[in-house]
Structure formats: structure tokens, C-alpha cells
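Example with several molecule types.
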Amino acid sequence: MKKILATTISFVALILILSNCQFTKQGIQIPVEPYEKLSQYQFFKGNLADLKPNERVIPYDLNSPLFSDYAHKARFVWMPEGTSASYTTERVLDFPKGAAIIKNFYYENDETDASKGRRIMETRLLINRGEDWEAIGYIWNDEQTEAYHEVIGDIKEVSWVNTEGKPQNINYIIPNKNQCKSCHLNGKKQIPIGPKVRNLNKTFAYADGEMNQLAKWASIGYLTGYDGQANHPKVATWDKEESGSIHDRAMAYLDINCAHCHNKTGSANTSGLHLTADAPLDLNVGIFKATVSAGAGTGGFTYSIVPAHPEESIMIYRMSSLNPGAMMPELGRSTVHHEGVALISDWIAQMDENPAIRQSATLR
Amino acid sequence: MKLSFLPTLFIALLLLGTGCQTAEKGPQVMDAKDLIKNIQKRLIEAKAGDQILLPAGTFDFKRSISLNDTPDITIKGAGKGKTILSFKGQIEGAEGMLIKNVNGITLEGFTISDSKGDAIKVQGCTNVVMRDLETTWTNGQLATNGAYGLYPVSSTNVLMEKCEASYAMDAGIYVGQSKNVVVRDNYVHHNVAGLEIENTINGEVYNNIAKNNTGGMLIFDMPDLPQANGDRIKFYNNIMEGNNGKNFAPKGMVVSTIPPGSGMIIMSHSNIEAHHNTITNHNTLGIAVNSWLFTGVPFKSENFDPFCSNINLHDNVISGNVGPADKTSEYGQLFTAVLGGKPVDIITDGIFKPSSIGENGQVTGYCFKNNGDNIKFVNLNAGMGAAPEDIAKNMTTDLSQFDCDLPSFDTSEHDKWLAVK
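Resulting C-alpha cells for the full complex:
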């Protein structure tokens, strides 16, 4: 009798080990160790590649997003039942433990013809573990039926037709787990980059109608401390002229594309170049700033920004470069963001050629 | 039948429980066959205390290799020149190898060649050992080479020894914004700067050889950085010989202003003692002592001290500097304009820290003594005007007011840590 009991217990134990406790799951649960397959999280229902969110998985968008080689991003957020993020004015929202940010990177096969479908390259999860956030990467198979967990990333060739009808072809680089940290690290911890009030403060077309994203999050219990009547900070949309002055749009662009490293506690603080949206328009953002360790990144120029002269500005050179030893950002880009370069060039071109800082020092 | 199944099941469960303990007979050398594919995964999944052993052979990488956070890791190859990680075909990453935020990292016995950016960057780490490493670029002195070979930055307790660094288009060995640093027994050649210590506090640099660079050894303090104001560095028993190589750094980099033929340049740093170094056969200068102001490049930080102070150069051998001085750099052209193109053994811009200048004009805290009987010395007095015509008028060659002694200072903070390495 005892032996039969032991057998039964052993079998149960074995099943538990092998099944990874899946049969106890009800709805979305975030495991301690990453699932092997993206579908296991149950963030999406039906055909996985349709990215149709399950209940409480909320799509969102940003006013000014990070450029990622012209990939589109379908972003979603999920929080455990009964939890919510709390409002913060400046930094990323304070998300509850267990919260998940889900970012799907895809290319439209033809930007001029949506009917030609899309190809999802990867899905990145950021999970708030409480002490720290964890970045977990999933790479989609060619059949677009599933995405599989991978810590070392990959390089995949991708082709598409751009908005001008021109065929494009690049090596799309999926970052490894350490590279995720390069951008998401702040001090000693990883944090999300995008979901700040000023970036979320926009209207989104939900399945049940348009609504401001912050109001939506508050209405479903995802955001506390939000005053619906108050004015909330809103960053300009870099490519929409009506959203702000050229300075505001340029700073919005630099903030989302550069400031995750170029801030006082980020990976690039060793450079002394700070590109947060609120940085003063002086040496901080690179005006007449000499380089420290730019290496090939100088392109033979002397200063990060030479006002009125984008063609002599290191910033433009590095944004336009595809040499891994010179280009900025260092990661996540294997093509030039021509529209971004144009914006920053225009911004530099309209600057005062002879700012106060120039008068305070003798320049060579 | 049912009962006979039991032992098998228990063994199975036991195996599940024990994992792979049977394999843990000391670290295994990684398989050369799959190294390129596996090394990054191994580094991401490393556990504290792991030794990661690399096989001999040449391995071609497309992406940079990185290690983050996991403490007490050793990455060890079969020796420099034997385990070669080549980045000739690199398409991604601003360095060959990046080690970040690791408390306890030993890198030993391998070569990194042809990385697109820096070869080995160690950022925000403590207790760093870099030993028997080589960094190089194999197509000669090109402006497209990476900037730094061995590059610890923002790190504490750093030992670099028995390494060789060549063909970097900035510095072969570059220590930036670090604390408690020992750099010894290294060989740096054919770089723009052989060895550079920047914004670093408390260090000793000895028994190193710098040959055929543009400038042999540099000690710089740069403005507007998180760790401002380098302090307390001893340089001794180093050899700087024939650093007359062309300057192949792109314009805009600080080192692009270094005149070919420079032995040692000290800029805006405080508390330097350089003694018993051998500095020979340089076409332009033996040792230069300059302030940041001499560069004319603006800075914003109010707590940055742009002046050199307490610079003690004694008992060095400076010889064989016959010229002609460089004419390709702005600094070198000054030699033609005011010195007839002749080289000098010790040169200072004469822009001294205001607090070090007495009422009678006597300067304290700059001592250049016993560096040879007939050394050629010039004080440009550029504080009275930096244009060549001003310098020609104001410069002096009188070494007597620098004939003084300075007390030695304590750099022993690293001794305790070094004792266990």
C-alpha cells in the first residue's frame, strides 16, 4: 500500500515537473522562469500573429517613439488583477510588481499596401519583478505561428517596400539579453523607457472608440493618481509640425532616442553629453562641446554641435553613420533614420551661430 | 511489474534533483567548434564565481561580446596570440568585448583584433584584472581603427599587466575616471597615444614600454565628466622610446592634437610624480606640462580644475631628442614658429594654477629636477598671450625656478586588494 502511495506521489511530482504547473493556470500568469513560447503567456487570443489582445492586455502608443530601423511596434501593457501603476510627472510611471510591457516589432511587407501583410520579427517583454525589471526576448518563426525565447538574439534579413515605394533590405538585429540592459539600465536597475506621462498623453483608437491613453488606463484601474481635469505634460511628436516648435520636436526626438544612455546616471554619462528633454541648450546638449572618447565618432569634426552648421556637427555625423564604431545610437540601428537626421539638422541649422558660450571662451 | 518500475522512477527523480553535478569537475575549456555561437549565451547564463575558459584558435565574430552584473567571473584564453577573437567582420556593437557592472572580473590570455570600436571596454566594475591580453588592428595605422585597445572606465581597483596594445587610433591602454589603478609591464606601440591615464585618482604606472606611438604616455584631465579632477598618479621606470609615429587620429579627438614625436604629456592633472623614466629619441618633446586652457576648448563645469598642480618630474633620463620637431600639428608648428623647429626635453605652457603663483611671481608646485645636465627646457608663458608672436616675446628657458622638491604622496590604497591578486 505504501509503495503504491509512493508511486502515485512520484507520478504527481513528475507530472508537475514536466508540465511546469500549466494545468493550474487561469488566465495570464507571469512565471518565475520565462516561458519557452510567447503563446504560453496568453497575452493574445486566436491566431497569435494577429496580436489580438486578451482581456486586460491594453494596447498603447507613444507621442515620440524610439527609432528601430523603420520597424513598427505594437505595444501592450498588462498588470495583475487588483494592481495599478501610479502617476509620476517626470520619470517612467511606477508600475506594480508583476506588470508586463509587451512590445512586438514588425515590418509591413509594403508600406503603401497594408493588404500585403506584415512580418513580426520579435517580441520583447519587460517584466517588473519588483526589485528590478527583467527583459525577455522572443523570436518569431518564419511561419509566423509562434515566437521562441532566446537570450542571445539573432540577425535576420528583412525586406520591405517603404512609404515611397522603394524596396528596402537590411540585417535586422535582435538584441541579446545584455544589450537590452545597455538601453534599459538606469543606475544599477533596468527600467522601461517609453511609458512616461508626457509620452503616453495622447489619443488612442481603442476597439471601443477613441480615448486619451491616460484616461483609459485610469478608467480600467491601471493608473492611480491621475487627475482627469488637470493639464498633463505632453511631449511633442517629432514628425508632426503642429505638435511643437522645431526645438521641442528635436528635444523630443533626442530624449526618446538618446537620453536613456545620455543622462546623468545612464551608460553614456562618461561622455558628459546629456540629451534629456529638459537639458539646457548649452554644452549639455553638445553645443561647442569637445569629445571625450568619441573615437571614430568625431568624423573629423571638433564639436558635437556647431550651431548653424549641421554639416560640421559630430551629432549629425554619428546619426548618419553605419560604422558600428562611430554610429549613434550604438545599438538597435543598422540603417540611417533619414527623417530623424533631417529634423536634427534643421534644428542645428536654425541655431544662433554665436551663442553666449562661444563668447565665454576662445575657440580654435 | 508495477513494483519493479519504482526504482527506475526514483533514479529518474534523483537525476532530476541532482542536475548536472557529475560534470562539475573544475571548469571545462569551451568547445572551439561552437565557440562563436555559444560564448554569448555562456556569458549571459554565467553564475557568480564561474571561470570561462576559451580554447586556442582564431574566432570570427559579427557581434560584440558582453558580460553584465554577474560577480567574480574569469574569462581566460590559451594566451595572447593563441586565443584570437577577431572582429574583422563585425556588423554590430561599439566594442569587441564589453564588461559592465561586474564586481570581480579577470580577463586573461587572449587577443582581440580589428574591433570596429574599442577592443575591450570595462565599465563600472570593481576588482578588475586585465593580464596577458593583446589588442590590435591588423591593417596598420588607419583612422578607421577602433579608439581604445584596453579601456577600463569608471572602475575601482584595476590591475593591468603584461598586456600588449597596438594600432589604436586613440590610446592602446586608456584608463578613464577610475580609482586605485596599477598599470605595469605592458607594451604599447604604433598607437596614437601609447598609454593614457585620464581623470583617474590614485594610480601607479611602472615598467611599461611605449614605442613608435605618436605620443608615448599621457596623463590628462578632461572637463565636464562625472569624475572630475584626476589626482595622485606615480609614473616610474617606464621606457618611452622613439614615439615619432604619424598622428592618424581623426580631427576632433583630443589626441589628434598631439604632435608626433612626443614622449610624455601631462595636462591639467594634479599630483603627478614621474621619476626614473627613460625618455629617448623623440623629435618634438620629452615631457610637456600643460593646462586645459592651452587647448582653447571651452568647458562648463565649475568644479573642474583646468590647471596642472604639484607636478614633480625628477631623475628621469631624457635624451636623444634631435628633431626636427613636428610640423603637422598646431602644437608642433609652434616649435617651428618660436623655437626654429628644434625639439625640447621639457616644455610647459606656463599657464600655472593662480594659487601656486606667489606675489613675486615665483611658482610653487612645479618641480623639474635631475632630469639630465644639459636638458633643453622652455616655458612658453602662454598665459601672457597664446599667439606665436606673444610666445616668442614672453617665453623663457630658465629652469632654475623649477629646481625644487615636492613631498611624495600616498598611492597605497590598492595594496590590500593587490595582495590577494
